[in-house]
Amino acid sequence: MILILFSFVSGLLILIRGEFFLFYLLALSYFFLILDRNYKYFLLSIFFTLIVISPYLIRNYNNYNTVTLTKSFGYNLLKGNNPSLIVEGNSEFIDKKYDRKSLKIETNYKYEIILDNFYKDEAFAYIKEDPSKYLKFYLTKIIAFLFFDKDSSYPYYFNFLHIFPKIIVSILCLIGAILALKKTGFFQFLSLYYFANIFLFSIFFILPRYSLILLPIQLLLTLIALNYLFRKFLN
Fold first, then answer.
1. Among 28, 38, 11, 118, which residue's Cα sits nearest to residue 75?
2. Neighbouring residues of 187: CB distance < 8 A, sequence distance ≥ 6
3. Is the CB of residue 82 less than 8 Å from the CB of residue 94?
4. Considering the entire predicted model, what is its pTM?
């Protein structure tokens, strides 16, 4: 029953955010291939999850003649990887540089797919043009996600009541995440999930609200760091 519930909820989350499919596979692989090594449950969960998302996959195949969960990969990649180098992404760059009317893409049932592929190709072209620049920018986005974005344009982002707790929790969470990696178990999985989010979303762009998604996990990992530091002090 728990396996069915887990698969059902995972399927719904995948429908909400297509990239959750990667985190679902991470959770599935960790618990059923690394901890339990139960391949039967691994395959059963995939089967149940596919049942949940299959109507959407069939709908996309019928409409676009391709199996896809999301049609925004290219847009998001270009929004976060263009010459403006803004951690939060720059949609204005896309709107000004690539006016849809001037792209001469035929308006048909494949329009969204073709447009998104165009954005993807443009993003890859920028990255290939200067790989070292975008690698450094990727590391900049990782740091912004791990701690804070020094160039954030969001109102009240640098308010002391926001930025001070954010930095403290971020530092303690990082310590806790590193400590948790050393021992197999639930907290090790939380640490892997935390870093997977950081490394994945930093490929695109980082918004302040992304931190809220990870806040419950950050607080749990922070407790590990505090427990370690208290024991260190007491000893």
1. 118
2. 180, 220, 221, 224
3. yes
4. 0.89
